[in-house]
Design brief:
By secondary structure, the protein is mainly alpha-helical. It starts with a helix and ends with a helix.
């Protein structure tokens, strides 16, 4: 692992390039209110943003606010969000979170990390998304599967646990760019640095990525060299 100073410099250069290549990155979830973003982010667990955006228009049309969601028949919410997976737990969390918002926060989504973490179904990932995109508050770095995978590939963390990864990234990046990092790294993970077949030869971060030589497919001449090396005597 490189020194903290070297890691910080590399992280800043990566951030600069991400901003340059993905200038229009933003939250992919569709919402109009902080509550709608909270609900959409809960639904996005183990589900694509595209799928969430398919189900939320009708969900929010039927149940537009915390009061409506808190008092809705649970089975109706489950039916509307069924295709997002884990729909029973998600419906339960949405209703219980809305009830707590009504009882403890005057019907308004809270604006601090400690308060958000008291809501059922809300961990740091969801709280970071809501704070950054609904309120412009950068309390942490959103660590989803893309951010976790790419931050490890880029050699910026050695951890598997999202909370420890977030802590590492917070030490390397300016606070004002914590969410910029996440949304652009997510776009990069979808477009170039995919889970199964990363396109290292097309990647504008390859020269900064210690994993690139390991991930990119070997060229035909490299494969021949490897065969020749194996065949030659020691």
């Amino acid at each position: 692992m490189a020194s903290k100073r070297a890691l910080r410099q590399r992280a800043l250069e990566i951030l600069l390039r991400l901003k340059r290549h993905y200038p229009n990155s933003t939250c992919a979830l569709h919402y109009r209110t902080p509550l709608q973003l909270l609900v959409a982010t809960i639904l996005s667990a183990q589900c694509t943003d595209e799928r969430v955006n398919q189900v939320t228009p009708e969900l929010f049309r039927r149940f537009p606010d915390a009061q409506a969601l808190a008092t809705a028949p649970r089975e109706e919410i489950e039916a509307l969000i069924h295709s997002t997976g884990f729909y029973r737990n998600k419906a339960k969390h949405i209703q219980e979170a809305c009830r707590k918002i009504l009882s403890d926060f005057g019907g308004q989504v809270p604006r601090t990390m400690p308060e958000l973490l008291t809501l059922p179904g809300v961990a740091r990932k969801t709280a970071n998304v809501v704070l950054a995109h609904a309120f412009g508050i950068h309390a942490g770095v959103t660590v989803d599967t893309h951010v976790k995978r790419l931050s490890r590939r880029l050699g910026l963390t050695e951890h598997e646990d999202p909370v420890r990864i977030e802590k590492d990234l917070m030490q390397l990046l300016p606070q004002a760019d914590w969410e910029n990092w996440s949304i652009r790294l997510i776009d990069h993970g979808r477009a170039i640095c995919t889970a199964r077949r990363p396109l290292c030869q097309q990647c504008f971060l390859a020269d900064l990525c210690p994993s690139a030589p390991l991930l990119r497919p070997a060229a035909p001449d490299e494969k021949m060299d490897k065969k020749a090396t194996k065949a030659s005597p020691a």
